Amino acid sequence: MNDPAQPLSVLRPACTRDSDEAVRGRGIQRATLVAIITNATLSIAQVAIGLFANAFSLVADAAHTLSDLVTDLLVLLAGRRGADPADTNHPYGHGRIETATTMLLGGVLAAVGIGFLWSSGLRLQNMEALPELHPAALVMALLTLAAKEELFRYTLAAARRLNAPMLEANAWHARSDAASSLVVAAGIGGSLAGYPFLEPLAAAVVGFLILHMGLRLAWKAVGELIDTGLSEEELARIRQTIEQTPGVIGLHDMRTRRMADRVLCDAHVQVAPRLTVSEGHRVSDAVYLRVRSAHPEVQDVLVHIDPEDDGDLQTVPPGPLPERNDVIAMVHTLLGTSAIEPKRIQIHYLGNRVDVEVLLPAALPPDGEAALQQRRRAWLAEHAHYRSISFYAQTAP
Fold it and tell me: Is 170 found in the same domain as 97?
């Protein structure tokens, strides 16, 4: 049963969000399974043709493809775990699993790029050691190149559709595989045509590009792990949505951070200083719903309601403000022996001072009213934290 304290307008977006996360998780798993099947099939074919055609570079590329299966399985696991709902130990969900996996894959890409650069240098020094190859090796290398490029395009499209940086990192990993297959095809084709230097030269270029891509993805993931905020353009759009919400008269101290494809936001929203608690809470709900509706990437909005701009608080008089119990005791002191119990006491903490409004069930007699006002003026003169104390009598209906 739904919590009766929660309005349906708040509960429904939460249900929709959980459903969207489940669909997204299944999409990531489906794309990763396609990559696993493709890499497994290609690696077996590369080993078979490489051994048959004496193409050791093709066998090495098969070993590289087999290593990709490990990262594919890692992505599959992260996709399942990242879609898990929030729990006691992870109140914000498991999206950071995707972030950590993205950083790991970025490191793998960087390592692959360095490996190509190192390998190209060694090959340039030992060009005479290149073996004589069978033409079947070139056919297999081209087929592998086409399959890896198609896998890259498929995975990248899925990553952008699902807004999954982790899957995008894996897509570029597939592109690095296509690049390695291109290097193998260029090397085999160059050897068959009598130009063996093409393989190490292409390996150096592709290795640099892969290294750059890996570092860029890893750096992006690190930025998310250290809670880097959104860009100024994205902040401006969210800020505009909040400021246009009815009841909001000011906004300050807005902060954001990313968690995988989602954004967490918190903001101090200024409202009219004498709103009731319930009306201020309603403004907070309105801000939450408007931001979630206008910015689907925002997963949660924590709204802190302020009756004034915190940055403009007065610093005098010094010392802590009186608590509610202190104010109630003060009211009873001012009422003295009148034996009248206030119906309502409202306290407004504004400008580092206190305004008190007291509603009495009936008017005091003239002499009692005069004595009350005299005690009120004396109290205000002696207690600098009190700006005003007002007494009102309830009128008959």
Answer: yes
- Give the CA-trace dihedral at 380, 385, 387, 390, to 10 degrees: -60
User: Dihedral of CA 270/272/277/283: which sign?
Assistant: negative
Task: List beta partners, residue 265.
Answer: 256, 301
pTM for this entry: 0.59
Cβ of 396: how many Cβ atoms within 10 Å? 5
- 108 DSSP β-pair partners: none
**Each residue's pLDDT tens digit, 99-155:** 777 788 788 878 877 877 787 677 677 767 666 667 887 888 899 888 888 888 888
CA neighbor of 163 nearest in space, from 235, 98, 233: 98
H-type alpha helices, the chain: 8-52, 56-82, 96-125, 135-162, 165-193, 198-225, 232-243, 277-294, 324-335, 366-382
- In tens, the pLDDT along 321-331 reads 899 999 999 99
Strand 344-350, strand 353-360: pairing:
antiparallel
Domain boundary among 247, 278, 312: 312
Domain coverage including residue 369:
324-393
pLDDT over 80 at 281, yes or no: yes
Question: Tokens 């489906």 appear where?
Answer: 30
The whole-angstrom separation of Cα 190 and Cα 180 is 15
Instruction: Please report which confidence band the pLDDT of residue 3 belongs to, taking 50, 70 and 90 as the band edges.
Output: very low
351: left (phi over 0), alpha (psi -120 to 50) or beta: left
